[in-house]
Structure formats: structure tokens, C-alpha cells
Amino acid sequence: MRIGPTRRSVLALIGALAPAAAFATYPDRPIKLVVALAPGGPADTAARAFAPYFSERLGQSVVIENRTGASSVVGTESVVRAPPDGYTLLFGSSSSFAVNPAVMKNLRFDVQKDLKLVGLVSYTPHVLVVRASLPANTLAELVALAKAQPGKLTYASSGAGGAIHLATELFKREAGMDIVHVPYRGGGPAVMGLLTGDVDVFINDASTTVENIRAGKLKAVAVAWPTRSPLLPQVPTFAELGFPTVVSSSWFGLAAPADKPADVVSTLAAAMPSVFASAGYQARLEKLGLEQFNLNPEQSAAFIKAEFDKWAEVARSAGIQVD
């Protein structure tokens, strides 16, 4: 059968549009959301709060996969090496985006070049706590105690070179104190070290520390954020107490392999504001002690750069480097 010019033109047009039409259906299958830190931790909790609402907006399942190891390096690298098709995303943390690049010299990837930020999602400010039996109930008393006994007090971290380690070194430097670092293998064991009295001081996520504070098992003396935490409204900020540069938090964002098509990034980014506006999601964040970012793309990029610059400078001044 011969095809006339008009019909031939129509078929050619349909053929040309087919790839674009197929692409426009993104996403047409489940999306894998890689959480590079352990199940049950703040990053995992934030991801599991976000994923159902994100799935609803995208019209596809969003499946969480925990890929742990090397302070989030393993999971982050798995996304960097994934096909840039929009079906493998990173739910990364401050460790992934800022801390690891600041302290690790042998990373096999460049976060800024190899990942494309879709948007920042949520955060939990850090809070400085001390063991219940320590004879210090305020930040001023803690600093005075540490200065009276240089090298005697100890502070816990969830691992050498991590965000908590750097945050405490920042506080040490600004306060002019000499307290000794005791690294643990994770935040849970570090809290236990404080509860049993093995260590004296800990800077940790407010969301995971608040119950021990409310129960009187730990004493909170300062919040490391520009404003007070809704979880701990009675606890002053470092800035209120004379240390405005002591600002730290655990924060989380969504990213993808850098070569992903721009339209895919736009689709993902466009779904996020409606997630943030959801009353159900807001209620979930409040229950978990998480707070929502409200930053546009330019502000998000500036925030991450400032975080990297800050922690790189703290790492240099404290001599912290992870090979």
C-alpha cells in the first residue's frame, strides 16, 4: 500500500515526538531513594517521613534503600555511579554534602560535580547536653568547670571526623576549652556513654536527645542554632549565651546523579513544595522533632557552600583529617 505525502508527514511527526512523549511520562516506575546512613537514625527517619508524600505527588512508589558504610560514603557513591535516569536518588545528609568533602581527602567522587541537588528537605538542630551528675547546669558553668580542669572533661562523638566531632571542636575553640574527644561507633552508643557517666559532654541531634532531656537523664545547656528549638523552648541558643558562631545541625537533602536530564530534576523539584505544604507531612515532622527548610535553589546552594567552608576550616584548625 502506498502512503501519501500527508500521511507520511504525520507518521514522521509521530515518530519524532515518541521519545519526548515517553520521557514526559517520568516517572513510570518505582524510584529508589538511597539513605546512606543506618536504619533508625535521623536521616532514615527524615527520609521515611518524606517518602510517602513524595510518592503521592509523583504518582509512583518511592522505595527506601539503606546503604551504609564509611560515614555515608558508600551510599553516596552508589548514587553517583547509578544511571542518571531519575530512578536512583540520594536522600543525603550534612555528612554526604558538606562534612565528608571537608575532612576526607581520598573520596573517589566530587559531591559538587557528581551530584545535582534537587532540594533541601529538613533538619534537626544540635543541642549540647551533659551527664546528669556533672556539676554544671548552664553553659557558663560548663565552660568554667572545663577551664578549671583542663584536659579532664571528656566529650563523646558518633565517630571521628563526623559532624558531631566537628561541631564540638567548633565549640571548644570558641570557648577556649581543653576537653578530650572520645569517639563512639554511632550516636546510640555515644548517648549510652553519657547516660552511664563514661563521658561528660555531647553535642547531638535535638530530635534524638529530647526524650532523655525531658526525663532528666541528661541536662541541656545550649542549642546550636540561630533560634530556639520548638522541642526545647526553655534551652537558650549559643548565640544568646555569647557564642554566635556555634551553629550546627544534622540536615537532609535530595540529590541525583549530575548527568540526569534537566526535565527530570524539574519534575522532582516541582513535587517538593506540595509535600512541604501538606498538613500531614507538617504534623509528621513536628512529631519527629524535625524542622523544614524553606530555601529556594540559590539559597540552598549557598547554605551548602557555607557549611562546607565552615567545616573545612574547623577541620584544618583542629587537625582533623580522615583518610
Comma- or semicolon-separated keywords:
12 helices, D-Maltodextrin-Binding Protein, domain 2, alpha/beta, 10-stranded mixed beta sheet, 323 residues, 2 domains, single chain
Description:
With 323 residues, the protein is α/β, with parallel strands linked by helices. It has two domains: 29-124 and 250-318, 3-Layer(aba) Sandwich (D-Maltodextrin-Binding Protein, domain 2); 125-241, Periplasmic binding protein-like II (D-Maltodextrin-Binding Protein, domain 2). The chain is built from twelve helices and ten strands. The chain has helices at residues 5-23, 42-58, 73-80, 94-103, 111-114, 139-148, 163-175, 187-195, 206-214, 262-277, 279-288, 297-318; strands spanning 31-35, 62-66, 88-93, 115-131, 154-157, 180-183, 201-205, 218-223, 249-257, 291-292. Strands 1, 2, 3, 4, 5, 6, 7, 8, 9 and 10 form a ten-stranded mixed sheet that branches. Helix 7 (163-175) links the parallel strand 5 and strand 6. Helix 2 packs antiparallel against helix 11 (279-288), helix 4 runs parallel beside helix 12 and helix 7 (163-175) packs across helix 12.
The major pleated sheet works out as: 10 strands, mixed
Query: What's the number of helices?
Result: 12
Overall shape: it is: globular
Number of discrete domains: 2
What is the CATH superfamily classification of the largest domain?
A: Bordetella uptake gene, domain 1
Helix content range: 40-55%
Oligomer status: single chain
Structural class: alpha/beta
Given as residue ranges, the uncertain stretches (5+ residues, pLDDT < 50) are 5-23
Beta-sheet strand percentage?
A: 15-25%
Q: N-to-C terminal Cα separation, in Å?
A: 70 Å
Could you state the order of secondary-structure elements as H and E? HEHEHEHHEHEHEHEHEEHHEH
How confident is the prediction overall: mean pLDDT?
92
Q: Return the CATH class of the largest domain.
A: Alpha Beta
Using the CA coordinates, give the radius of gyration. Answer: 23 Å
